[in-house]
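Z., the sequence and structure:
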Amino acid sequence: MTEKIIKYQNSGIFYRTMGEGKTIVLIHGFAEDGDIWNNQAGFLKDHFRIIIPDIPGSGRSELIADANIETYAEVIKLILDAEFHEPGPVDAVETNITGVNSSMNLRRGEARGPVTLIGHSMGGYITLAFAEKYPQYLDAFGLFHSTAFADTEEKKQVRAKAIDFIHDKGTDAFLKTSIPGLFTKAFAEEFPGKINGLIEKGKNFSSRALVQYYEAMIARPDRTAVFTKFPKPVLFIIGEYDSAIPLQSSLRQCYLPAQSDVHILAQSAHMGMWEEQEKVNKILFNFLVNKF
């Protein structure tokens, strides 16, 4: 595994790479960092090249002022350009890669062909924004507990109340109340340590970052048209008990792409990569192998 930092608007963006072969980018969701994918990365790295970024303001990545979903998509593009293509004049100014191993150099000019983006929750919104603007980079993409529909007015109000809660009580209190609800009751009862660990890790988030994410999600547009314009495979992984992205709402978008691969996790809420990790690993592997 190689760890790198790339500069975007003077903010350091951390990401990891591992494995060899076709490139898969795993994009985490709200109040997470790239570690959420550790099990999937460990499984897939023997077959593919994996890139896992920390979204600005998460994990080891610095916050970008006034960022939105489109900004995060531009960060993904910058990483891909830095990894696989000779930068142009603008990229050369904006890009600054440093590896943990000081001998690591950029892979200049190594164009490895299209990549696959898989986005969890908010990471799915970023994936869609990327697919809308840069479809030529992609040979497929996947939404993992995510949706192309814009927020309903009711959902916007829920997010606005969450912002008020964060301002009033802080990130620690907010995550203690919100994270357990992302899992099924059965998982929460069987693995309280995992959920508590996620809550504890959440203390590293600033309230500014979480509020920025909420505001970005509220402002994002409907992107269902991305499906109808994208001729390549689209993966949907849906949690049967997901209250954040409900099952029926998720199913409404699955018929839109020309090529859909749809999977319902019957024992998951919003965190299938943990709740049914072996099944998810097989779904991802089969999708990637069959696509190529």
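The two ends are 24 Å apart (CA to CA). Strands lie at 2-8, 11-18, 23-27, 49-53, 98-99, 115-120, 138-144, 233-239, 259-265.

Let me know what you think.
H.
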